[in-house]
Protein 1
Amino acid sequence: MTAAAVTSPDAVAPAVTTVELPDSPGLLGLLPSAGALSWVRRGEGLVGWGEADRLEVSGPGALAEAAAWWADRSAALDVDDTVRVPGSGPVVFASIAFDPAAGTSVFVVPEVVVGRRDGVTWLTAAGDADPRDLLAGDPTPLPPAPTRLRYADGALDPASWCGAVAGAVRRIGDGDLAKVVLARDLLVTADVPLDTRRLLARLAARFPDCWTFAVDGLLGATPELLLRRTGRQLSARVLAGTAPRGAGADDERLAAGLLASAKDLSEHRLAVDSLVRALDPFCTALSVPDGPSLLTLPNVRHLASDVTGTQRRSGPGGRAGLLDLVDAVHPTAAVCGTPPELANALISELEDMDRGRYAGPVGWLDARGDGEFGLALRCAQLDEQDPRTARLFAGCGIVAGSVPAAELAETQSKFAAFQAALES
Ligand SMILES: C=C(O[C@H]1C=CC=C(C(=O)O)[C@@H]1O)C(=O)O
């Protein structure tokens, strides 16, 4: 399949201005009801709205095409940026398909971006308007919260999904592969339209340690950082291996059990190894912890490894940009498996659904090449046609020894992240 792009070249604004803001409005509170763009953690990050430019792309070479598009577009802008930190000046938000060759990846350049980093807040505006005039906020009142939510099975009912997990465990036992990540979807219909602003605010309040993201109707709070690039410094937070939360002493027992679980440790190791293998050729140095630590969230606990590296001045294909690096590392074994080709084929065979942009890279990129991409997990795709409905996703790493009922329970704990935002 060849790459297909839908662009609106005439919409590119010639001027982009960034100014520092004297006060610190809550970022998510600035978002309008439609077209919200977000990448926020602990009150810092970026929000955006309006559309100065857009690229939709799929096919082999999709990310290389997107990188060339952003390089062209950002180079053509007349930029006045007095803040000059990662995320100031021109920015593009991106949500990349799990399989960029088959699915559609979306890149949106907002008309307005408000960012905060280390306590400094700025506003970037495309066009000639005075940036300060663009902060009026959305006068549309929040609609009432849903009072009724109806859930329905997605592609597979729970019993069929457990059958798929059992099938994967058999294939792993046959020696075909070491790990595969299997996901399922859940459909929700509310009695009123779902409001992005309310959902993002609730996700951010409940999951301050996660990145609350929204791009083109895909929103969630992800705990996993695929890759951050600041100058030549690279960092990632690899997650794989999960335990449920318990109460009191039971919670401590579950945490200790996760750190000692051979099954979860091997699942985690495969995810770390896949990132390191892909990143190593691009780096002069990579630092990988000896073993994982625990990341504790309200709904689950994960094994986590923070990996850091320094990018080579020149490497494979010259000086790689962030999208080249994302292309090289995705999909890691946190969302696909080992070896990736066999795992990908098994995912297509067993899941019976199109992942779309779930488990794909999501984040932002600026004109200097700095940016952050997480993996789109603990998320839902809002339905464009019917704003009362959404599709939630959750997946689990399957290795030798995985028990289908326990994996099903793990997906339920992961769904609970978005369900809490819908239900509270
Ligand atoms: C694929 C998902 O989680 C991944 C990230 C953290 C832990 C995982 C696990 O323990 O299976 C998964 O690899 C998901 O949340 O949908």
Protein 2
Amino acid sequence: MMMMQRSSPQLWRKMGLKAFLFSTCSSTPSLSPPLVNKSLPILGPELPEVWIPNSSSPPPTNNRRSPFIFNHDAHEQTAVVIDGKLMADEIRSVIADEVSRMKSAIGKVPRLAVILVGERKDSQTYVRNKIKACQEVGIMSVMTELPEDCAESEVLNAVSSFNENPAVHGILVQLPLPQHMDEEKILNVVSLEKDVDGFHPLNIGNLAMTGREPLFIPCTPKACIELLLRSNVEIMGKKAVVIGRSNIVGLPTSLLLQRHHATVSVVHAFTKNPEEITREADIVVSAAGVANLVRGNWLKPGAIVIDVGTNPVKDPDSEYGYSLTGDVCYEEAVKVASAITPVPGGVGPMTIAMLLSNTLDSAKRAYRFT
Ligand SMILES: Nc1nc(=O)c2c([nH]1)NC[C@@H]1CN(c3ccc(C(=O)N[C@@H](CCC(=O)O)C(=O)O)cc3)C=[N+]21
């Protein structure tokens, strides 16, 4: 270990090469039959991402997130609570100033177009929150609502008309789309210059490649990094584990952490020992979409925890019969981690701030306003 730490990059590379030679020479697995069959694509089989938590004890039943409700064991808490709402408010106030500076200088304001298909209650709430957030900073918004059973071509037409409208700087197609629609086809049509969600394959590709700059970085991954940076967490050289590999969160978050020079492992539904791998991490970003998946014993003492999950769980005490819970078992994690984002009030509000920021950047780029 000591040798490794002191060695020069050249020596390190040589050692790497040696290790590679050993690994190829010491074991000679027989590769039969050869993998030439087209039905076994080299990209791997597509399998449903189903998480099976294998924890021995059930998580605490009280899912309340607020640290204030846990006064009785507050002395056991080691973690600083990262206040995403407060940090997002600070960013939103800077955005509001920028929007008004733009308005008085060139008489233009940014505009976000939102396309909502279907009547999902959660999607309606998210979209309403995004539009309200736009209003509060002076960003204009326009929304197209389409019924669940509309044709895919209607969604494509809505995207195209926003693509062609020069007064629109950002286009957001709320996900998930109804089952019968081809999400890939629809997202591919969103103009690269207006892709404020950062879901276009070219934006993701440029994010993945060293030395290239995507026009937009997806909002939730950007929010995770912003929360780390504003909490003065050093990312460079740290071990980070991302739990989940979705196109919209897990994958781009792992890419972005690598661009910040973290050593990144991705844990997913087929990982054999997720808790062991996660326990190695200095920084844990969980985006699995499974309530209370990450238990206290998954964490290294002092780890930084960013909880992306917003999972609805039954809660008879709450107004709508359910409340939002993260992927991380908060009550356990606050006793182990050194910092943690709450749900709600962590990544969610910051995600919306990043959407506003991307929309402002897009408008500035369109008008060459600096
Ligand atoms: N094209 C697209 N872009 C998205 O960015 C996108 C999407 N589709 N589909 C759904 C997910 C989910 N998402 C959230 C954003 C903010 C909160 C948020 O602000 N949550 C609040 C709580 C909100 C509440 O209490 O209802 C919080 O965590 O404090 C949550 C979730 C964006 N998504």
